[in-house]
Specification:
The complex is a heterodimer. Chain A has helices at about 20-30, 45-60; strands at about 10, 35-40, 60-70, 70-75. Chain A is α+β, with helices and mostly antiparallel strands. Chain A has a domain at about 40-80: TusA-like domain (Translation Initiation Factor IF3, 2-Layer Sandwich), CATH 3.30.110.40. A four-stranded mixed beta sheet of chain A has the order 1-2-4-3, with helices on one face. The termini of chain A are far apart. By secondary structure, chain B is an alpha/beta fold. A six-stranded antiparallel beta sheet of chain B has the order 6-7-9-8-10-11, covered by helices on one side. Classes of the chains: A alpha+beta, B alpha/beta. The interface between A and B is medium-sized, with 25 and 28 residues.
Chain lengths: ~90, ~350
């Protein structure tokens, strides 16, 4: 997938095992303003299944991913609507 | 806990443990059907087989088999999921469970107490009204009989506020039922080990994409892992066992050579790579000039044991058919090369954990 998006913040989760990248994503996005875009770097190919699922469950918007070798760059837009921690 | 006054429906929030298995998914669905606001908590314990498969990074594994089932269930149900890292506290509990182990290394009662405790804390911090689980009366021999369900609730300090929607009809009414937060008539009366009734409800509600029921994804309930786990506890002070040592119990072939020396022999290239990620103290062995497993040594082997470790490493290398094999023993930048015959299988079996 070719995704060219300017992210407001970046998390480097390369080398981290599931579910740490999702935990880090959740922690960071809680601190971001609504509409902000987070870029998550990961080399775990299953995150391409988990991240969209996490976005569907929490109400954030999954914008897609780009691939650079074995590294994936995933983009998540924070939505105002729902968060687990209220 | 003191009972709250009745609140209008629609503002009720339930906090549930959601593994993503059929039971917890159905429990959440029962409450959603009643208009309850549901938040799912998914614990990462460090003993999940799916998580380990992902860490191994084998290219031929189907990604769907390794997905996080809690996130998948949350997405399918349309409820938010919070992933919680059980961390060191969970590790301590696993090594010293108050209520003991089941058939393997599974401290099921303490595990439930740990997680429900966490859910109760989350409920208090985030304005929840009660906690629910997908527990089914009589389904599991250690943790889901009537006495265990009562014990778990009592030890978690939320008596009356722990709802088991799948078996509620067999259990005394909880505070959420008495106050009308949930309708007891809409809760289920499932009990026993059969999953037939759950499957009926899953068909009715269109819940089809769940992991096989009762398949188990927890290393602590795995026979091979349990042997290694109890060997570790037997030979090491449980208070001194490090998290890395527990992770290594999931990888490779394990051999106990003496009370103080144990080795782990990688099974394939993925396990070699996995072992190389750990900065472990001690010796490492590798056969030379061929495909070879990495052998990690725990403890301090003498010269005779080093020869045995080299022989075992040679046995699992690509040169196992040769009479003598050069094996490198490395530690802290130094290297010794040992020339050994591959060990005979009948000798090897005496050491296998």
């Amino acid at each position: 997938m070719d995704v060219s998006i300017r992210a407001d913040e970046v998390i480097d989760a390369v080398g981290l095992y599931c579910p740490v990248p999702i935990i880090r994503t959740a922690e960071r996005i809680k601190k971001m303003p609504a509409g902000g875009i987070l870029k998550v770097l990961s080399d775990d190919r299953v995150i391409l299944i988990d991240m969209p699922a996490w976005c569907r469950s929490t109400g954030h918007e999954y914008l897609g991913h780009a691939q650079n070798g074995r590294e994936y760059h995933l983009f998540v837009k924070k939505n105002r609507a729902r968060e687990t921690t209220r | 806990m003191s009972e709250r006054t009745s609140e209008p429906r629609g503002t009720i929030r339930a906090i549930g443990l959601l593994s993503g298995g059929l039971d917890s998914t159905l429990a959440a669905k029962v409450l959603l059907e009643q208009g309850v606001d549901v938040i799912g908590l998914h614990y990462s314990t460090g003993f999940c087989m799916n998580d380990h498969r992902r860490a191994m990074g084998r290219p031929d594994e189907d990604p769907k088999r390794m997905r996080n089932e809690g996130l998948r269930a949350g997405a399918d149900l349309g409820i938010p999921i919070e992933i919680l890292d059980a961390g060191e506290a969970y590790m301590k509990m696993v090594l010293n469970p108050k209520h003991g182990y089941g058939k393997r290394a599974n401290p099921c009662i303490d595990c439930r107490i740990f997680m429900i405790h966490g859910a109760a804390d989350y409920m208090r911090e985030h304005g929840g009204h009660f906690v629910f689980t997908g527990e089914v009366l009589g389904q599991r021999p250690m943790s889901q009989h009537m006495q265990a369900l009562r014990l778990i609730e009592k030890e978690c300090g939320i008596e009356g506020y722990l709802l088991r929607p799948l078996s509620a009809a067999h259990l005394p009414p909880t505070v959420p039922e008495r106050l009308g937060w949930v309708n007891r008539d809409g809760l289920l009366g499932i009990s026993g080990r059969s999953r037939k009734e759950q499957m009926g409800w899953s068909t009715k509600w269109g819940i089809g994409d769940y992991p096989q029921p009762a398949g188990g994804c927890c290393y602590l309930a795995d026979e091979n892992f349990a042997r290694r786990f109890h060997d570790k506890r037997l030979h090491t002070d449980p208070d001194r066992i490090r998290r890395e040592e527990m992770i290594l119990l999931k990888v490779g072939r394990h051999f106990r050579l003496t009370a103080g020396v144990k080795i782990i022999v990688a099974r394939d290239e993925s396990e070699n790579r996995f072992l190389q990620r750990f900065d472990l103290p001690g010796w490492r062995f590798e056969a030379l000039e061929c495909g070879s497993p990495i052998t990690v040594v725990e403890g301090e082997p003498d010269e005779n044991l080093k020869m045995l470790i080299a022989s075992i490493t040679a046995r699992y290398s690509d040169r196992r058919g040769e009479p003598l094999v050069e094996v490198a023993a490395r530690r802290d930048g130094r290297e010794e090369v040992l020339l050994v015959p591959p060990v005979a299988d009948q000798v090897l079996e005496a050491y296998r954990i």
